[in-house]
Amino acid sequence: MPQTEEPAYHTYVAENLPPDTSVIALRASDGDLAPSNISFAITKGNQLARFKIHPQTGSLTTLVPLDREQQAEYELWVRVSDGQLSSVTLVFITVSDVNDNPPEFLEPLYRVTVPARSKTKKREALFRIQVKDNGAPQLTATTRVLVRVMDVPEESPNPPVLQPPPPAHVMETDAPGHLVSFINARDPDNDTLWYYITEGDESGRFSMGVDSGLVSLARRLDHEEQHHYALTVTATDGVHTAATKLVVEVMDANDHRPVFSARTYEGAVSEDVAPGSTVVTLQCRDRDQSPTASSAVYFTLHHAQALASQGLFTVDSFTGDLIVAEPLDREVSSVHELTVSCRDRGRQENADFARVSVTVEDDNDHEPVFLEPMIIAKVSTLCLRRLVHRRLNRHQLPDL
Asked: Given a cut of 70, is residue 45 above it in pLDDT?
């Protein structure tokens, strides 16, 4: 059966490159045929006609400029065929970002009210804010902020009352500006309240409206980096301050592909090994799951290179054990080349692939056999007499 040199391919291509940009060249071999007799075809994952593959050379190129903001990754299924037998190899293409979009403010004008820190006659000010990204070339955006200053009381009989907020849940894919929670507070004296995050956000992942009590995302979160935040939020009337805890749980998204611990596994078994015996145990890790989640991924046997290997092995989908399914015979095949996969259990499955080479060691399970049941040879009488005479001289009989 023809198959590619690698069990799967992972490659990158920058967005906005012109058509016919080279992505990767697949190479395949078949023990029965010369490489020139192998053909390639994309069978899945190219519904939008973004790529093409040369049927003889296996060269994969783009058909149109790619846009990372439209689609960041492609998973192509490539069939490798010799005209009779075929196998499928997956090609994962990640579109590298180019700084072709400037940053954007959510509003053209922001209004905010802040407490006065000192005696001042100026009650409002308009600021022009510019932001720059870190790309090349560097792009910018501008907005305006209208700031109003409000006096705070010199004394207040009663402190504000804060309602403990329920735990908030956000996805790690939620964009900056996403509303996390609303802090509900009241003041018995009807004083204006101001809100702040005072603890638990040392990395600056959240922002809080000083005059609104709205908590929102300032930066993207990463479940694998930190999945639990305990924020201390306060409300103050300028005299008294009340505090409460806001717990934020970051929900995991299936944004990581499972990865085998090795690209190639090797195992050896005797040909007299009993079916059900384990040859090698595959290991695959998914960063979207905790290290103790043993059922995070499941394993499958993708294909075997030789027809003689078909049906001889199976993979335990839960443990990753490669198991002998049928009796082996080294005289039929001494090496078995298998391609295995591990997949996560996300709504849209991600996968990785690896190769397993199983060597079958010989067992003395065959007696020697003559090629003929009887062997007939002819010799002359002279040769026979010389042979007998030589033997007698070597072993003379004793005198009687």
From this structure: yes
Half-sphere exposure for 356 (CA within 13 Å, toward CB): 31
**Residues 80, 7: contact at Cβ < 8 Å?**
no
| Cβ partners under 8 Å of residue 73, min gap 6 | 92, 93, 94, 95
Token pair 């005696």 is found at 119
The Cα-based distances of 205 to 199, 202, 272, 286 in angstroms read: 12, 8, 61, 25
Q: Which residues contact 128 (CB under 8 A, 6 or more apart)?
A: 142, 143, 144
Q: Which residues of 241-257 are buried (b: 16+ CB within 10 A; e: fewer)?
A: ebebebbbebebebebb
pTM over 0.85: no
CA 4/CA 89 separation, integer angstroms: 7
| Residue 360 near residue 333, CB atoms below 8 Å | yes
Burial bucket for residue 211 (CB in 10 Å: 0-12, 13-18, 19+): middle
Check whether 396 has a pLDDT greater than 90.
no
